[in-house]
Automatic annotation (TrEMBL):
Its cofactor is Mg(2+). InterPro entries: Nudix_hydrolase (IPR020476), NUDIX_hydrolase-like_dom_sf (IPR015797), NUDIX_hydrolase_CS (IPR020084), NUDIX_hydrolase_dom (IPR000086), Nudix_N (IPR029401). This is NUDIX hydrolase. It comes from Bellilinea caldifistulae. Belongs to the Nudix hydrolase family. The lineage of its organism: Bacteria, Bacillati, Chloroflexota, Anaerolineae, Anaerolineales. It comes from the Bacteria. PROSITE patterns: NUDIX (PS51462), NUDIX_BOX (PS00893). Pfam families: NUDIX (PF00293), Zn_ribbon_Nudix (PF14803).
Length: 214
């Protein structure tokens, strides 16, 4: 299904995404009901649906395995165990102000977030955070310490983990690459809105809490 210009893989996730962007309960409920028949047996989304066996190419079927509905190959017995997506973000702070960028494209278009992106399969998350910061903003930084790890299930691309690293700038110059259309440093009492979900809002809230000791 397509929502907000972005393909959403299931009704439960679509509902969370719609609600997160501020749509009313009535709209969100109608949106979910319309697509509820597309969920696997039991109505629980299990992640990435492969459809065909990775080992032998046979069409997979949904089977109850280990208390969950999973895709299983009826020919060779291979089971699809979907894994969480992993993202990494650079939390850059200068003179008590936090660097945030505003998303220019779906999903989360118009929402503010920490410069971040998916970790490549062969990439250290620390390097991924530094790379994404440079790609999105033109700024170069070095990650210093892990700020936090955040599970999220409100992103239309799937559930995942966001690893956030406190970082300091080492060079470069602000040059947005098109994924973001605005950027700035913000103090805790002047944060822009809305904030992106997918763990970013909670990471930012933890930063604010760390300033007050709460």
């Amino acid at each position: 299904m397509v929502y907000g210009g972005f393909t959403v893989s299931n009704a439960v996730l679509a509902g969370k995404y719609a609600a997160r962007l501020g749509h009313g309960i009535e709209f969100t409920s109608r949106f979910c009901i319309r697509y509820i028949s597309r969920l696997p047996p039991g109505g629980v989304w299990m992640g990435s649906d492969m459809g065909y066996c990775y080992e032998c190419g046979a069409q997979l079927t949904w089977q109850p395995i280990e208390n969950r509905q999973r895709e299983m190959c009826p020919r060779c017995g291979w089971v699809n165990y979907p894994q969480l997506k992993v993202s990494a973000a650079a939390m850059v702070i200068q003179k008590g102000r936090l660097l945030l960028v505003r998303r220019a494209t779906p999903p989360w278009q118009g929402c503010w977030y920490l410069p971040a992106g998916y970790v490549e399969a062969d990439e250290d998350p620390v390097r991924a955070a530094e790379r994404e910061l440079c790609e999105e903003t033109g700024l170069q930084a070095q990650c210093d310490v892990l700020h936090g790890v955040y599970f999220f299930d409100d992103d239309p691309r799937g559930s995942g983990l966001l690893l956030v690293y406190r970082s300091h700038l080492t060079g470069g110059g602000l040059n947005l690459n098109g994924e973001a259309d605005r950027a700035g440093f913000f103090s805790a009492d002047e944060l822009p809105s809305p904030l992106t979900g997918a763990g970013h809002d909670r990471a930012i809230a933890d930063w604010v809490a760390s300033l007050t000791g709460s």
